[in-house]
Design a protein that fits this description.
By secondary structure, the chain is of the alpha/beta class. The protein has 13 helices and 12 strands.
């Protein structure tokens, strides 16, 4: 039986908690049964950070991703990419922006070349990247551009729940304005396909949330559910996808309701993320569907106030690594 390729973990914002949680994830590798991974980062930065945190983490530099497999049991493998200057935890500097985006781009190239099993991205700080000339709204858009993917979906995964926000980082007013039947259908199709390919669910069931309270109450609370959401559900069902809705969002997320579907399509950001983060605040994973490779990420930000303190929890990164390994095995 062949050994699966390692996972590539990106640098993320070097003044944030990415390094902290990468070190902690390696320390817990045996207990958590994490798959083999390496970090594209500044090895000297990680050594200094390990000393600061009082963590016994041997760091070994590797020249090729494949070399990580031989070293992972005894040391954290690092594809050494030095920063332009040393960074103090909690104090971001735009001079590091190019190194952050280069780490992501290199991980994508390795994934596209099938040299890594998946890309696991550490959190970035968009304001720092914008100051360095970053031209994309965020991680997902940059990954899509690097991969040449025209349509991608953001899925959030926690224990017992998968959610897809059809509209993402826009105001509630703009979310409703941007919501179309075609958009819901595209997101539903990509979600159903990924549930089959990456999650091993042969006949996926989708629950589609309504926009308005009580899914509009037959038009009494707005016509979006009648005019936009219901036709999308009908189109998904006509395409052979088991989709139900529009459903009242306030009754979709209790345990008995969650047992009836494999993923929930939600119409705006908080409708998806509030239930997921309530269910598992520290263990949520962000997954990008529609890319030609697997990408997962911790579902949290850079947490500058925790960087370098030893207080950052690695749970979400560990969950992202394990999910990426499981997805890679199914594709393998």
């Amino acid at each position: 039986m062949s050994v699966p390729p390692p996972l590539a973990v990106t640098m993320g914002e070097p003044a944030g908690i990415g390094g902290d949680i990468a070190l902690a994830a390696w320390v817990s590798r045996e207990r958590s049964k994490s798959p083999c991974f390496f970090v594209i980062d500044d090895a000297d930065r990680l050594r200094r950070l390990a000393v600061r945190l009082g963590m016994d983490v041997p760091i070994t530099t590797i020249d090729q991703p494949e070399n990580a497999i031989a070293h992972f049991a005894a040391a954290l493998p690092v594809l050494h990419r030095p920063l332009a200057k040393a960074v103090e935890p909690g104090q971001p500097d735009p001079i590091t922006g190019t190194a952050v985006t280069s780490s992501i781009a290199e991980a994508v190239r390795l994934a596209m070349d099938k040299r890594v099993g998946a890309v696991v991205t550490n959190p970035i700080h968009k304001a720092v990247l914008y100051a360095a000339g970053f031209a994309f709204p965020g991680h997902t858009e940059y990954l899509a551009a690097l991969a040449g993917a025209s349509k991608v979906v953001m899925m959030l995964v926690a224990d017992g729940l998968r959610v897809v926000p059809v509209t993402i980082h826009v105001s509630l007013v703009d979310a409703v304005a941007k919501l179309t039947t075609a958009l819901i259908v595209d997101q539903g199709r990509l979600t159903a396909a990924a549930l089959v390919t990456d999650f091993g669910i042969p006949a996926p069931r989708l629950a589609v949330a309504g926009v308005n309270p009580h899914a509009g109450e037959d038009g009494a609370m707005g016509r979006e559910d009648i005019d936009v959401v219901a036709p999308a559900v009908a189109a998904l069902r006509a395409a052979g996808i088991d989709a139900a809705g529009p459903l009242p969002a306030d009754t979709m997320f209790h345990p008995a309701a969650r047992a009836l579907y494999d993923a929930a399509l939600c119409m705006y950001h908080d409708q998806a993320l509030i239930p997921l983060k309530t269910l598992d605040f520290f263990g949520g994973v962000n997954v990008t569907l529609g890319l030609p490779f697997i990408r997962t990420s911790p579902d949290h930000g850079t947490a500058f106030e925790l960087a370098g303190t030893g207080k950052a929890k690695p749970d979400s990164l560990i969950a992202a690594l394990k999910l990426a390994g499981e997805m890679a095995a199914r594709r393998g």
